[in-house]
Each structure stands twice: as structure tokens, then as C-alpha cells.
């Protein structure tokens, strides 16, 4: 660790990123590091050279695939090895399109005092996350022990995962489910065990229309609010005015509409609580994608 002690903060972030991807993805490309941090490929090459000087047994270069891979002797020196660390990287990449300002990759000292409300931390098992990512990357099946809301008991599931996503609360796996013979969403923290297998999927991920097709959601201030209040809500959600009034428009994968609507209380029609501040302009178009009683496991 002593070799990293005097490294500049920006480079330390990149080295941390490289090691975290090696640990969880099993491969690291120079281009991905360059795009994530907005630095030249030449700088990234120097980062890899420095890292391999400090940790000569950790990474090896595959000339055919043009990627770095962890060796059998790989031992993280910067990464914590916690699934939350990797998942935080994914969130930053999804929402910010960059990870160069991600706090978890290092600490800035002397910042303003701050605080936040506690949030439930559903623990994701490290061994489960590795197997899920392996199955996605290798396009293979997954034998899992999973707790569903249907029984609240551990049950065996045969799945073929092809994506993971964050719902604003928890991480989910999008997978074809042998039990229900359809693509469904599985909470990542509810997997007790998971092991990738070589069983080919009975349904290609390309056929998951809920994932590949998108629909526009048009969110507006609740009509029960005064004009001044609606303008304030529009400011809160960075809405823009169109011919029909204030609107926040976003493109969503169809399978994510239910999560979005539930998160913002947009799926409540009757007896809407007074604290509800938002409505859906195109509700009738989106209702088919709202959660049904067995929509998720």
C-alpha cells in the first residue's frame, strides 16, 4: 500500500476504479477508464503501468482481446471488495455518465459539514454478485436460491440474467425465469446463493421487449396545487413548459415504468394523499406497465 500513499487524488481514483473493475467485471479496458474519467489514453496507459509496478501479481494483459485481467494471485490493494462499492460505480456511470467525482473512490477533506437521512441497506452477497455478473457477461444460466414475496421462503430458481438496474431503492436483476416462463425482475439482495451454469437460455435476451422497448413518461405538478405551488414543483423537478403546461419528460424502459410510478406515487389514482405533488399526463398510456400483484419477485 505504501506505493500508493503519495499518489495524487485524481490518479488514485483512476487506480481504484481499475482495481474495482478487475475485481468484479474480470476485465478492464483502457478505453473505459479514459471515457469514465475524461483523460487521454496515454495517461491511462501510464496508470496501468504504475499499478502493475506496485502490484506486479495482480493484472495481466491479454494481447488478443486488448484487455487487462486479474491473475489467479490477484489481491485488491485499493478496492474494499464490497459489492456496494461496485454498485456505486454503476450508479455513477448511469446517472452522471462519469465516475470522476464519485465520493466512494476517495475522500475530499475540508468539505462543508453535511448529513443525510438513513436509508435501508439491503446487503448484497459478494459471491452472488460475482456469479450474476459472470452469467450476464458469459450469456449463461444461473442456479439460485431466492426469497420471493410469494412465499417468503427460500426456493430454487433457474434464471438467465442479462442486465441489472437500480430502482432508486434497491438493485434488481433482469432475467428470464424458467418458473414463470417470462422475463422478470429479482431483487439482488434476496438471493441466498447463485451459481452460473452452462445451460443455454430458452429465450434470447433480445426478446425481452420490456427491457429493449421504451415509452415516454410525462410528469406534471398535481392539479390540486395552486399555480404558484405548481411553479415551485416545476422548479424542484426541472420541468419545462410546453403548450399544455409544466412537464418533466423522460424516456423509460417499459419494465421500469412500474418502479418509477411507485417511487413517485404516480400509480395512486383514488384517495391520493395530499402530500402527493406529481401527476402523470399520459397515465392511460402507462397504466399497462404499472405493477400487478405478481409483477416482481
Write the layout of secondary structure elements.
Elements: H1 9-24, H2 30-37, H3 41-54, E1 59-62, E2 67-70, H4 83-96, H5 126-138, E3 142-147, E4 154-166, E5 171-177, E6 182-187, E7 191-196, H6 209-212, E8 214-221, H7 227-236, E9 240-242, E10 245-253, H8 257-263, E11 278-280, H9 283-286
Antiparallel strand pairs: 1-2, 3-4, 3-7, 4-5, 5-6, 8-10, 8-11, 9-10
Helix pairs in contact: 1-3, 1-4, 2-3
Write up what this structure looks like.
The strands form three sheets. The chain has a five-stranded antiparallel beta sheet. 30% of the residues lie in helices and 23% in strands. A hairpin with a 4-residue loop joins strand 4 (154-166) and strand 5 (171-177). The protein has three domains: 2-82, Arc Repressor Mutant, subunit A, CATH 1.10.10; 126-204, SH3 type barrels, CATH 2.30.30; 213-289, no CATH class. The chain is globular. The protein is of the alpha+beta class. It has helices at 9-24, 30-37, 41-54, 83-96, 126-138, 209-212, 227-236, 257-263, 283-286, and strands spanning 59-62, 67-70, 142-147, 154-166, 171-177, 182-187, 191-196, 214-221, 240-242, 245-253, 278-280. Helix 2 packs across helix 3.
Amino acid at each position: 500500500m505504501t506505493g500508493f500513499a503519495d499518489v495524487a487524488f485524481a490518479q488514485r481514483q483512476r487506480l481504484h476504479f481499475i482495481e474495482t473493475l478487475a475485481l468484479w467485471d474480470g476485465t478492464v479496458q483502457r478505453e473505459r477508464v479514459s471515457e469514465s474519467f475524461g483523460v487521454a489514453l496515454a495517461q491511462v496507459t501510464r496508470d496501468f503501468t504504475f499499478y502493475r509496478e506496485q502490484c506486479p501479481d495482480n493484472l495481466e494483459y491479454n494481447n488478443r482481446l486488448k484487455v487487462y485481467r486479474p491473475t489467479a494471485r490477484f489481491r485488491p490493494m485499493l478496492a474494499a471488495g464490497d459489492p456496494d462499492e461496485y454498485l456505486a460505480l454503476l450508479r455513477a456511470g448511469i446517472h452522471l455518465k462519469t465516475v470522476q467525482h464519485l465520493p466512494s473512490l476517495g475522500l475530499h477533506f475540508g468539505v462543508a459539514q453535511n448529513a443525510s437521512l438513513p436509508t435501508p441497506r439491503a446487503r448484497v452477497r459478494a459471491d452472488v454478485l460475482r456469479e450474476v455478473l459472470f452469467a450476464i457477461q458469459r450469456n449463461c444460466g444461473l442456479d439460485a436460491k431466492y426469497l420471493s414475496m410469494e412465499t417468503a421462503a427460500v426456493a430454487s430458481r433457474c434464471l438467465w440474467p442479462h442486465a441489472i438496474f437500480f430502482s432508486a431503492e434497491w438493485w434488481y436483476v433482469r432475467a428470464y425465469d424458467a418458473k414463470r416462463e417470462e422475463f422478470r425482475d429479482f431483487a439482488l439482495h434476496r438471493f441466498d446463493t447463485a451459481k452460473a451454469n452452462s445451460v443455454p437460455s430458452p429465450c434470447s435476451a433480445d426478446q425481452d421487449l420490456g427491457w429493449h422497448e421504451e415509452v415516454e413518461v410525462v410528469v406534471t405538478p398535481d392539479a390540486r396545487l395552486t399555480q404558484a405551488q405548481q411553479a415551485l414543483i416545476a422548479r424542484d423537478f426541472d420541468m419545462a413548459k410546453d403548450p399544455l403546461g409544466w412537464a418533466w419528460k423522460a424516456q423509460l424502459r417499459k419494465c421500469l415504468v412500474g418502479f418509477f410510478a411507485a417511487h413517485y406515487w404516480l400509480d395512486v389514482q383514488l384517495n391520493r394523499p395530499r402530500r402527493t405533488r406529481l401527476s402523470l399526463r399520459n397515465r392511460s398510456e402507462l397504466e399497462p406497465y404499472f405493477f400487478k400483484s405478481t409483477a416482481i419477485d
